[in-house]
Amino acid sequence: QVQLVESGGGSVQAGGSLRLSCAASRSTYSPNCMGWFRQVPGKEREAVAAVYTQSGLTIYADSVKGRFTISRDNAENTVYLQMNSLKPEDTAMYYCAAKVLGGRCIAVADFGSWGQGTQVTVSA
Asked: How far apart, in whole angstroms, are the C-alpha atoms of residue 90 and residue 10?
């Protein structure tokens, strides 16, 4: 397991920007991929973006393509989510996730380590 600590959430008006950070604790194995998910009360947690830490390959949900950018700093074991042109429907608790083993990095079930979450609220 990898311990994850998120930061950077907050409240912003529609059209604004926020940058989330997720720092992973150093362990014997570095994460193979890291991702961001979000969840609103009463709904399932959904994938937002993921990045394979070695290749840099990124994956985005259709709803955030062109607005969100995921990036990583392997030296610091940190992943970022730059969120631009935010919409009220982006309001959610955002969770960072990490996976040490190889393979798919898309669904909730693919990831073994989770952060506590950081709230993002976008007002109209």
From this structure: 12
Tokens of 70: 């995921």
Q: How far apart are the first and last CA of the chain?
A: 38
71 contacts 82 by C-beta, under 8 angstroms: yes
Question: What pLDDT digit, counting tens, does each position of 6-56 carry?
Answer: 999 999 999 999 999 999 987 667 789 999 999 999 999 999 999 999 999
What count of other Cβ atoms lies within 10 Å of the Cβ of residue 8? 16
pLDDT over 80 (residue 1): no
Identity of residue 87: K
Q: 74: helix, coil or strand?
A: coil
Single-letter residue type at 41: P
